[in-house]
Amino acid sequence: MKAIVFDFDGLTIDTEYALYESFCDILEMEPGKLPISEYAVHIGTDSSSLYNFIQSQSNGLLTRDEIIEKSAVLHKAKLSKPFARDGIENYLKAAKELGLKIGLASSSYRDWVEHFLKELDILHYFDVIQTRDDVKKVKPDPELYKNTIKLLGVNPQEAIAFEDSANGSKAALAAGLNCVVVPNKITEHLPFENYHLKLASMADRSLQEVIESMEKSVNLLEK
Question: Which of 48, 128, 166, 169 has the largest count of CB atoms under 10 Å?
């Protein structure tokens, strides 16, 4: 393995549960009353289907523009003191020590991604960042991962993608990368398919252990 590539929302920082809570506030629902299993399907891709889903849950009482405006204000407030998910910074440090290249592939806008990476003081770890500003189609389309891999200068099979959503894992696999899924409180309700390894948290295994497990799997497939 020569590179690792991280997703952002829900994987590097759990922006997704904060957004879910924001929508619950708008709909005047207690968390859990807005069905997470249905909500989670719209995570990890373009936000259009998510806004349409929330609008349907409002029984027509909220317009799309109201949902976008109100959720943005609430979401920003809930993320005023962001923190990285468990194990992220350890993985970034370990990757540098191992001489691996580090990329990030996100369906969000660059300004959003880089703002939080700066807040967490981890922006400097990334050699390549690709966001929706750089592609025509976001996940589950593989374009974000294809771009990232090309810019990192490695072959897809030499890289490991870390994803929290089904749409993200589909994109990584379609681009030919090895994929480790690390679901969060929202996406743990989703059915994941064809991934190479699943972790409850990146604190559960060291990056070295993940790489060794991945390389062992690849070697077995090649025999």
Answer: 169
Catalytic position from the list 7, 14, 141, 164: 7
What is the pTM (predicted TM-score) of this model?
Answer: 0.90
Whether 196 shows a pLDDT value over 60: the answer reads yes
Tell how far CA 206 is from the center of its chain. 19
What residues form DSSP beta bridges with 180? Answer: 162, 197
d(CA 180, CA 31): 28
Where a domain ends, among 35, 52, 78? 78
101 and 202 in a single domain? The answer is yes
**Catalytic hit among 9, 14, 141, 164:** 9
What is the predicted pLDDT for the residue at 219? 60
Burial of 123 (0-12, 13-18, 19+ CB in 10 A): middle
State residue 222's pLDDT score.
53
Active site residue 7: yes
9: annotated active-site residue: yes
Report the distance separating Cα 204 and Cα 71, nearest Å. 33
Q: Is the model's pLDDT at 223 over the cut of 60?
A: no
| Domain identity same for 93 and 203 | yes
Same domain, 123 and 45: no
Total count of domains within the chain: 2
Q: Which of 35, 59, 78 is the last residue of a domain?
A: 78
